[in-house]
Design goal:
By secondary structure, the chain is an alpha/beta fold. The protein contains 21 helices and 28 strands. Helix 2 packs across helix 3.
Length: 648
C-alpha cells in the first residue's frame, strides 16, 4: 500500500471514528474534532478547492497559527495531489513575495484578517494570487476584493459537490504515491533568499515513524501545537507524527494563552526550543526570589537534593536509601507541584532542539523529573537524525543516529547524513541541491562536529562560521562563534549574543539582556530604570554581564581547542534583536553578517578600543510603523585567562 497522509487520516477515521483527533480552545472552552468529523471536513475542503480550480502538483499557501481547519486544508490539498506550503504567520507582507512568486502560487488559505491584509498587499507584486480564503471572518465583513472568500463558503460548496460526486474524493486520494511531493518548507534565508525544501510523503512519514518508534509513541499521546506550522519541527510533531500515531493535537486559543493551555492539557509529548525552557526556568526563579523565606529555603534545599539525585534516577541509576527518601519528600513538596505548575505533570518525553541547551538548564528539568532530551536535525532531513535514548540524555551531545540514518564526518569536520528522510531537492534550484546532496546520497549538513567515544554526536558550530583568530596572543586559534554565543546564553540574564572574531586578533560580543530576568534583578536591588534601553546601560548591569562573560572565559581557558575564543570586549545593545528588523530569522537565528553591517559603528568601537559609542537604529513597530531608538552604549573590557595546556 502506498502510505500517504490522507490515507493515514482515513485509516484513523475508519478504525477510531469517535476518538478525538484535534482539540481547539475557543472562548475558553476546548472543542474536540473526531477523526470521522475531520475526514468529512477534509473531503469537503478538497472538493471545494477542486471546484475552485486547484490542480494536482500545484502549490497552495497556508498562513496562520495551529488551527484545525488549516490542518484540514493541508490534508485536503494533499488529497488532490496539490502541495501545501506553510508560511510564518508573523512574517511581514514583503517576506511572502518571494515564496509566492517562486512557487507560482494562485491559492492561499489564511487564518484571519491580519493574514488577508498581507495577501492583498502583495497582490500587486504577485498578480497570479487569485484565490484567498480565510478561516476567521472577524473584521472582514466589508471586504469585497476579487477572489476573496471564506473557508466556510468553500466547505459548503465542497459538501454539495461531494454529495453529487460521492466517489470523487476517494478516487483522488488513491491516485497519490508514497514518492509524491507532500509539502514544501522554505528555509529561514539567513544569507539570501529562502530556499523551498521539497519533501515527499515518504520522507516525512519515514522520519515521523522513526521518531515514534524510538520513543514508543502511541495514539494515547497529547500534544500542544503552539509553534509556527511553517517550521518543520512543529509540522513533524503535530502533523506528520500526529497522522502516523493518531494521537491528539491541541491548538491553543492564542499565543497569550499558551502557558495556561499547557497546564490545562498536560501534554504527554512536548517539544520546545531552549529559549522556551529558559523562559520557564527564569519565571520559576523570579517567583522563588519573591517568595517568603521558609518557602524559598525549602525550594533551594530540595533543589539541591534534586540536582544530586534526580538526573541519576531519571537515567535509571541507583541511589542510596536516604537520598531516594529525601527525593521522594521533595517530589511531594516541591517537584510535583512545580511540574504541575509548568504543565509537565504528564510529560513522558520532552524534546529540545535548534540551539544548544545550557547544562544547568538541562539538569534542572531532568532533576525535577521531566524527561527532557535533545535531538538533531534540520528542514532538509525532516528533523529526525539523532535522538537521545532515555537513559543517555546529556547536555553536551545531540544523541545517537536513529533508525535509518547513517552519519560520517568529513575531513573538514562537517557532518554528512544519509537517510530516507532527506529532501527531494530545493525547488527550482538544482545548483543549491547539488551543493548539499552528493551523487551517492549523502547530505552536507554544514554543521561541524564529531562522534564521541559513546557514539553520541557533538555539534561545534556551522562549518562556514568556524574561523581563526589572526594576530595577537591567540594568532591561529580556532574561533567558533555559535559555541561562544551559546555558552553566554546559558546564563538567565542573557537572551541573545552576537560574537565576532574571525580574521581578527580578539573576540568581541554584542549582548541582549533578558529584560524580565535583569529587570527583576534590578528591582530587588532598588535599581530604578525607565525601560529596556535605560536598564541595558546601567553600570551595575554591565558588572553583572561582565561576571557572566568572565565565567565563560574561565571555562573556555580549560578547552585546548577553543581557549583562543575567550571574549576580550563586550557591549550591551540598546534594543532587542528582532526578526521584524531583519536581525533574526523567523526561527530566531542570528543574522550575524547583517548585524555586523547594520551596527558597523558598534563593531568598529569594540575593535577600536573605544569606551562608548553613539548609535541610532531604525525599528519597526508591530502596527507596521517605523521609528528610531538611539543611545550612547558603553563598551567594556573583560578579563581573559591563560589557557590550560593539555597533559602530554
Amino acid at each position: 500500500m502506498q502510505i500517504t497522509f490522507p490515507r493515514l487520516m482515513r485509516m484513523h477515521a475508519q478504525q477510531r471514528p469517535g476518538a478525538a483527533a484535534l482539540r481547539e480552545k475557543e472562548y475558553g472552552i476546548w472543542q474536540a474534532t473526531s477523526w470521522s468529523s475531520l475526514a468529512q471536513l477534509v473531503q469537503s475542503v478538497a472538493c471545494g478547492l477542486h471546484q475552485a480550480g486547484l490542480q494536482r502538483g500545484e502549490h497552495i499557501i497556508i498562513v496562520g497559527s495551529n488551527r484545525p481547519r488549516l490542518y484540514a486544508t493541508m490534508l485536503a490539498a494533499q488529497s488532490l495531489g496539490a502541495i501545501p506550503v506553510p508560511l510564518y504567520q508573523d512574517a511581514a507582507a514583503a517576506e511572502c513575495v518571494f515564496p509566492i512568486t517562486n512557487a507560482e502560487v494562485r491559492f492561499c488559505v489564511v487564518e484571519d484578517q491580519e493574514q488577508v491584509d498581507k495577501m492583498l498587499e502583495v497582490r500587486e507584486q504577485c498578480p497570479q494570487l487569485s484565490h484567498i480564503y480565510f478561516d476567521d471572518p472577524r473584521g472582514l465583513r466589508k471586504y469585497t476584493e476579487d477572489g476573496l472568500g471564506s473557508l466556510e463558503a468553500l466547505i459548503a460548496a465542497g459538501s454539495v459537490f461531494a454529495q453529487q460526486h460521492p466517489q470523487f474524493y476517494a478516487d483522488e486520494v488513491e491516485k497519490a504515491q508514497y514518492t509524491d511531493v507532500a509539502a514544501m518548507f522554505f528555509t529561514s534565508g539567513t544569507t539570501g533568499n529562502p530556499k523551498g525544501v521539497v519533501h515527499t510523503h515518504g520522507s516525512l512519514i519515514d522520519r515521523a515513524d522513526a521518531g515514534a518508534e524510538f520513543d514508543k509513541l502511541t495514539h494515547s499521546e497529547d500534544v500542544l501545537a503552539y509553534m509556527p506550522p511553517a517550521w518543520i519541527g512543529q509540522n513533524i510533531f503535530s502533523y506528520a507524527q500526529w497522522l502516523v500515531c493518531g494521537y491528539v493535537v491541541n491548538c491553543p486559543e492564542s499565543a497569550a494563552t499558551v502557558t495556561i493551555d499547557l497546564k490545562e492539557i498536560g501534554p504527554t509529548y512536548y517539544f520546545a526550543p531552549p529559549r522556551v525552557f529558559e523562559s520557564m526556568l527564569t519565571s520559576v526563579m523570579i517567583r522563588m526570589e519573591d517568595a517568603g523565606r521558609l518557602k524559598r529555603g525549602m525550594f533551594h534545599y530540595f533543589m539541591g537534593v534534586a540536582q544530586k539525585v534526580g538526573p541519576a534516577l531519571m537515567d535509571g541509576q541507583s541511589a542510596g536509601f536516604f537520598d531516594r527518601l529525601k527525593y521522594a519528600v521533595g517530589n511531594w513538596l516541591v517537584y510535583g507541584p512545580l511540574r504541575n505548575n509548568l504543565g509537565f505533570s504528564r510529560v513522558r518525553v520532552a524534546y529540545t532542539a535548534g540551539e544548544a541547551i545550557g547544562p544547568d538548564l538541562f539538569t534542572f528539568f531532568r532533576s525535577i523529573g521531566v524527561n527532557i532530551k535533545q535531538l538533531y536535525g534540520s528542514t532538509e532531513t525532516a528533523v529526525f537524525v539523532c535522538l537521545q535514548p532515555d537513559n543517555e540524555a546529556r547536555a553536551d551531545t545531540v544523541g545517537v543516529p536513529c533508525k535509518g540514518v547513517e552519519i560520517k564526518v568529513a575531513d573538514n569536520g562537517e557532518i554528512l547524513v544519509k537517510s530516507r528522510g532527506l529532501l527531494k531537492g530545493y525547488y527550482k534550484n538544482p545548483e543549491a541541491t547539488a551543493e548539499v546532496l552528493t551523487a551517492d546520497g549523502w547530505y552536507h549538513t554544514s554543521d561541524a562536529g564529531f562522534i564521541d567515544s559513546h557514539g553520541h554526536l557533538k555539534i561545534i558550530d556551522r562549518v562556514k562560521d568556524v574561523g581563526r583568530i589572526v594576530g595577537g596572543a591567540n594568532d591561529g586559534a580556532m574561533f567558533a562563534p555559535k559555541y561562544v554565543e551559546n555558552k553566554l546564553k546559558f546564563f538567565p540574564h542573557i537572551k541573545e549574543v552576537v560574537a565576532y572574531g574571525d580574521q581578527r586578533e580578539k573576540v568581541c560580543v554584542m549582548i541582549n539582556i533578558d529584560f524580565d530576568a535583569v529587570g527583576n534583578w534590578a528591582e530587588r536591588r532598588n535599581l530604578p530604570y525607565a525601560g529596556y534601553t535605560d536598564l541595558a546601560q546601567k553600570t551595575e548591569v554591565y558588572q553583572l554581564i561582565r561576571e557572566c562573560v568572565e565565567k565563560v572565559n574561565a571555562d573556555l581557558a580549560q578547552d585546548t581547542l577553543l581557549a583562543g575564543s575567550q571574549v576580550s570586549r563586550f557591549l550591551v545593545l540598546h534594543k532587542e534583536l528582532d526578526a521584524d528588523d531583519g536581525e533574526l530569522t523567523r526561527t530566531n537565528k542570528v543574522r550575524r553578517s547583517f548585524i555586523a553591517e547594520k551596527y558597523k559603528p558598534l563593531v568598529d568601537g569594540l575593535y577600536g578600543g573605544m569606551t562608548s559609542q553613539f548609535i541610532e537604529t531604525v525599528v519597526k513597530f508591530e502596527d507596521g510603523r517605523s521609528g528610531s531608538v538611539s543611545a550612547t552604549l558603553l563598551i567594556s573590557d573583560a578579563k581573559t585567562f591563560t589557557p590550560v595546556k593539555a597533559a602530554s
